[in-house]
Every structure is written in C-alpha cells, then in structure tokens.
Design a protein that fits this description.
With 316 residues, the chain is an alpha+beta fold. The chain has a single domain, classed as Arc Repressor Mutant, subunit A (Orthogonal Bundle). It contains 13 helices and 11 strands. The strands form 5 sheets. Strands 4-3-11 form a 3-stranded antiparallel beta sheet, with no helix packed on it. A two-stranded antiparallel ribbon has the order 1-2. Strands 5-10 form a two-stranded antiparallel ribbon. It is globular and about 70 Å long. 38% of the residues are buried.
C-alpha cells in the first residue's frame, strides 16, 4: 500500500477486517489440510486412501476435512465400492469455483516454496497450447494486477458480525527450522489476516493488535514466526527506535493473489455478501474482481482446460 496521508482509522479498519468475507471464510477453510485436500482434488485425486497416501494427511484429519467440505457442498461423495462401502469425492460447482485461489497457492509454491509438496511441476493451458504461470487479473478490464494497482474502500458489513460463533481452525504453528516452507504458517488464518492488515496500512504491534483483536501472546508468536519465515520484515521505527515497524516482503506480497481470490470466492459462492474490504482497480476505475488468467494468452483459466505434469515422485 502507499504511505498513508492521514492517520489510520483503526476502528474502521477493525470493523472492515472482522466483518470481511475473508475473515469469515478463513474461519471455515483457513487451515493447510483443507487447502491440500482441495489441491489434491483438482489434481484428480478422488479416493480417501489416495488422498491419505499422496498428501500425507492423518486419516482422522482427512476424514474431518472431507466431511466439512461435503457439508459446505464443495465436494460430493459417490460410492464406487459396496463391499465395503467406499466413496469417491468429486468437486461440486461450488468447489470448482475455488480453482483461482488454488492456482495462486500453486504459484506461490512455484516461486517461493521449498517444493516439498506433491504439486504439479508445470501447468499447460489447453486452449492456447502453452505452458503458463497463473497471473492475477482484473475481471472488469482483463489487465494484470498487483496489490499496488488497487485502492481499498472499507465498508463494514453488519450482516457478517464478528461474534466469534463460527468455527475457526487456527492451530498452533511451529516456528523454527523449515518454517519458511511451512504451508501451515503461510495459510494460517492469523498470518493471512496480518498480511491483509499490513497491506491496508498497519505497521506496528499495537495497531495490529487493535485491528485484528488478537491477544498479545498470540500476535507476538505469529509475528515472530512470520519474520523468521521471510513473510514480514521488522525494522526499527525511524522516529522511535524502541518500536518495531513491520513491512511486507516479496513472499508475503505474493500471497495477495490467494487472499483476493479466496475472498472473492467467499463473497460470490458462499456468503453471497459483498466484501467489506472493497478493492478498486485504479487503471479502469471498476470494482476489482480477482481472476486467475494464463500468462501466455491472458484468458481466464478453467479447471478442465488445464493439464499438468505430475509431481516428480510420480514420474520416477
């Protein structure tokens, strides 16, 4: 974000973030296992044992996540064996609508990850016949967009109250060796909300605590882990060396595509409510509708129009 000309309206920012479709969506899907299940489904995995074997998800955790995705009408089980009864899990239309967000996770892994996940090595767009990288574009004008190309209107949505009653998966994320490659840290609900708050202009511990309503110990732990993982840069405040100022890094700025695509999915396909954080594309002046497009032909991407090379271990 550009430097703020006026003092931050922290109260407005707090209400906008906590009533956002991003925040409410992350309460439902804001953990790494759910995202890995969805990524596996887009890679063609359908059976429980295949999800477990290829993604390394604990069986109880996998069962829990599949049940949750079925309850949200994102996946639908279909029996393929009667003795014993077993199901294959197929993405529904609502689940398929998550493709843009899933592509942005793949793009992050391709650029910044440690390549320790069983993800496709290369994507090919059938429509144009070329290998591609997904790029974030404006649904109104089709131009490629970064976070610096947008301005944000904050309009709290009173129909999405932040009463804390919705289920939220915010597991403790280990910090230490290998944290930079931890999908859990990158897709942790608090980490993504911190990136969003810094994007909107928060720079200091007290600002983040007030806006996100995070307890000091939880916030301190998340900030420490994100600095260690290269998702934030901490520097002394030029006006008060006792304070630390937090800034985004290239790695956390690259999460912006996932954040915006996920928030758009939550708004359009789950809550049917406008986002309280409303980005506007400066160049065309239209409300920004996040879309993933092919970097070669610049056309929107559909799951059935993309081929991929399987992970390395599946080709050896």
């Amino acid at each position: 974000m550009n430097a703020q000309a006026e003092p931050l309206n922290l109260e407005l920012m707090r209400e906008a973030i906590l009533t956002s479709t991003l925040n409410h969506g992350l309460r439902l899907l804001g953990d790494r296992w759910t995202v890995q299940v969805l990524m596996g489904a887009f890679m063609g995995i359908k059976r429980f044992d295949d999800f477990q074997a290829k993604l390394g998800i604990p069986r109880h955790t996998l069962s829990d996540r599949l049940k949750a995705l079925v309850a949200m009408d994102m996946m639908r089980p279909r029996p393929y064996s009667q003795r014993p009864l077993r199901h294959a899990y197929h993405l529904t239309r609502k689940g398929l609508a998550m493709y843009d967000a899933v592509l942005m996770v793949w793009d992050w892994e391709h650029r910044f990850g440690e390549h320790d996940l069983p993800l496709p090595r290369r994507l090919k767009h059938k429509s144009c016949g070329h290998a591609f990288l997904p790029e974030l574009t404006c649904g109104a004008c089709g131009e490629q967009v970064t976070m610096h190309d947008l301005r944000f209107r904050l309009r709290p949505n009173r129909r999405l109250p932040h009463d804390g009653t919705a289920p939220a998966r915010t597991p403790r994320v280990p910090v230490g060796e290998g944290a930079a490659g931890s999908l859990g840290l990158r897709l942790d609900r608090w980490a993504l909300l911190i990136v969003s708050a810094v994007t909107l202009g928060c720079r200091y511990f007290d600002e983040l605590s007030q806006v996100l309503q995070i307890g000091p110990s939880v916030l301190a732990r998340r900030l420490s882990g994100m600095v260690e993982a290269g998702l934030l840069r901490a520097e002394p405040d030029p006006d008060d060396g006792r304070r630390r100022r937090y800034r985004l890094t290239p790695a956390s700025r690259a999460l912006f595509g996932y954040i915006t695509c996920f928030a758009a999915w939550a708004s359009e396909h789950h809550f049917n409510e406008p986002s309280s954080i409303a980005p506007v594309h400066r160049a065309c002046g239209h409300p920004f509708a996040a879309r993933a497009a092919c970097s070669h032909c610049h056309q929107p991407l559909l799951p059935w129009e993309v081929e991929f090379e399987p992970p390395a271990e599946e080709t050896t």
